[in-house]
């Protein structure tokens, strides 16, 4: 095998690799020798088929296998000999000349191919002890707990059907059937049966609930509304619509007394136990928000400290993944870049920077984890898999088998766990100062109009409400 370096520019490498025809012939003969004990050819006893005869019968097809195996082995050997770390699987380019290919398969020409790749940059992690981050912490006060319990009580109000002939009022829960029409034609997602709507909740598009006030059970009516100009489905935005509505039941809300009996109805021993559970959950929410903001600061600091060159192909691949999701989101919502107060060119530049940041931080965190022997345990991975499976009730077995059979999918579960462990490692060495703040300050994000993409999951999707009778905010790519 002869290896000639043809490109060495920054992180880019290109090698010309040549394997003599004689070496290929030797590999071919060895392969045919292995085959002679297994093939069955009429006129020959098992194991007695001459290699020369096998070469005449199977030589071309076996040589194709030999060439593939040789490329795999020699390309790996070339990288090992050079002691380089490719940033991705190298691109292999064999000749496309049919005559040349035929000569190689016949053993009449050397095997020559090009291998191109980019190497990982030399990474130098900053001094973690000099990184300073501020951790905002908020206290869970009694007023917040009482407020949360009041919301729980509101959500668990009992409803009882109103007496026959009674008219609907604000706060009542109506059970309705409806069919939405534009210009007399039903539109997709504009119909439902046995839908429940609480008058005054604002859960449906403006004007819808108001026109259902003062009606009796059994009433059939037509609700006329105009979809908001910024409605997520562009083909409905600003359109006038009519909904044929049948009021099937009117139920009035009952009173809820927040006491031990209420707590027991929720499966807890007492009101005090309910308060403890609510306090614990709120504390977890506060801690998660605090962690999120600390992690953002940390990754900002790491990103600012890293100035190394990035493998261009990794950035390209990351950008394409982001861009595909962004354009799909826009298409699904029927919006354009102009609706988002930008242009495609500006959006591309913005998301290119995000892709660069992801690659830069991804490489650094991976390097830190490797050098410090940070591992994701089987227990941690199984826990993540169980959590994932639970997101698909009724399909648990199918989802479980999918992850068991797809290493790439399992790797996607492992990645965020690994990242969090590396972040924990760095935070343990950094200077973390706690800062007492209010709940409002803790959850305030001055950059909430922008996408930082500090985590390396590739999810930009939005959960949109496809029932067009219901109110839904416009789509905006993250």
TrEMBL record:
Residues 437-470 have a biased composition (Basic and acidic residues). InterPro entries: PPIase_dom_sf, PPIase_FKBP_dom, Trig_fac, Trigger_fac_C, Trigger_fac_C_sf, Trigger_fac_ribosome-bd_bac, Trigger_fac_ribosome-bd_sf, Trigger_fact/SurA_dom_sf. Its EC number is 5.2.1.8. SUPFAM superfamilies: FKBP-like (SSF54534), Triger factor/SurA peptide-binding domain-like (SSF109998), Trigger factor ribosome-binding domain (SSF102735). One of its GO terms (cellular component) is cytoplasm. One of its GO terms (molecular function) is ribosome binding. The keyword Signal does not apply. Residues 437-478 are annotated as: Disordered. It catalyses: [protein]-peptidylproline (omega=180) = [protein]-peptidylproline (omega=0). This is Trigger factor. It comes from Microbaculum marinum. PROSITE patterns: FKBP_PPIASE (PS50059). Keywords: Cell cycle, Cell division, Chaperone, Cytoplasm, Isomerase, Rotamase. Consists of 3 domains; the N-terminus binds the ribosome, the middle domain has PPIase activity, while the C-terminus has intrinsic chaperone activity on its own. Involved in protein export. Acts as a chaperone by maintaining the newly synthesized protein in an open conformation. Functions as a peptidyl-prolyl cis-trans isomerase. GO terms for biological process: 'de novo' cotranslational protein folding; cell division; protein transport; protein unfolding. It holds the Pfam family Trigger_N.
């Amino acid at each position: 095998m002869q290896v000639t370096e043809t490109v060495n520019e920054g992180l880019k490498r290109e090698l010309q690799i040549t394997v003599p025809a004689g070496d290929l012939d030797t590999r071919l003969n060895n392969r045919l020798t292995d085959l002679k004990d297994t093939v069955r050819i009429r006129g020959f006893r098992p194991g007695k088929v001459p290699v020369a005869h096998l070469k005449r019968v199977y030589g071309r097809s076996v040589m194709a296998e030999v060439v593939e195996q040789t490329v795999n082995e020699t390309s790996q050997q070339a990288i090992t000999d050079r002691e380089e770390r490719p940033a991705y699987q190298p691109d292999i380019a064999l000749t496309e000349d049919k005559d040349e290919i035929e000569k190689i398969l016949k053993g009449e020409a050397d095997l020559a191919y090009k291998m191109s790749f980019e190497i990982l940059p030399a990474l130098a992690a900053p001094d973690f002890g000099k990184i300073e981050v501020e951790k905002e912490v908020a206290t869970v006060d009694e007023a917040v707990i009482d407020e949360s319990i009041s919301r729980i009580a509101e959500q668990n109000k009992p409803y009882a059907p109103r007496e026959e002939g009674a008219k609907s009022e604000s706060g009542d829960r109506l059970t309705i059937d409806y069919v939405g029409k534009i210009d007399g034609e039903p539109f997709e997602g504009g119909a439902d049966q046995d839908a429940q709507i609480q008058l005054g909740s604002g859960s449906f598009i403006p004007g819808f609930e108001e026109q259902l006030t003062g009606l009796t059970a059994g009433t059939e009516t037509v609700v006329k509304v105009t979809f908001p100009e910024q409605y997520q489905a562009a083909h409905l935005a600003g359109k006038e619509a009519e909904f044929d509505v049948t009021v099937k039941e009117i139920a009035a809300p009952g009173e809820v007394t927040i006491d031990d009996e209420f707590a027991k109805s929720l499966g807890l021993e007492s009101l005090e136990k309910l308060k403890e559970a609510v306090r614990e959950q709120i504390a977890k929410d506060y801690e998660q928000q605090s962690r999120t903001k600390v992690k953002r600061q940390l990754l900002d600091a790491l990103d600012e400290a890293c100035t190394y060159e990035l493998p261009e192909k990794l950035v390209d691949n990351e950008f394409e993944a982001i861009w595909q999701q962004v354009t799909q989101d826009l298409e699904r919502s029927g919006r354009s870049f102009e609706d988002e107060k930008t242009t495609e060119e500006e959006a591309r530049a913005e998301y290119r920077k995000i892709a660069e940041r992801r690659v830069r931080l991804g490489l650094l965190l991976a390097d830190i984890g490797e050098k410090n022997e940070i591992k994701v345990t089987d227990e941690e991975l199984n826990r993540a898999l169980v959590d994932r499976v639970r997101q698909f009730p009724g399909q648990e077995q199918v989802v479980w088998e999918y992850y068991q059979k797809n290493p790439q999918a399992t790797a996607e579960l492992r990645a965020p766990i690994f990242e969090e462990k590396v972040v924990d490692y760095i935070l343990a060495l950094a200077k973390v100062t706690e800062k007492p703040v209010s709940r409002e300050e803790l959850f305030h994000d001055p950059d909430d109009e922008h996408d930082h993409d500090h985590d390396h999951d590739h999810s930009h999707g939005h959960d949109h409400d496809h029932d067009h009778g219901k109110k839904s905010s416009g789509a905006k790519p993250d």
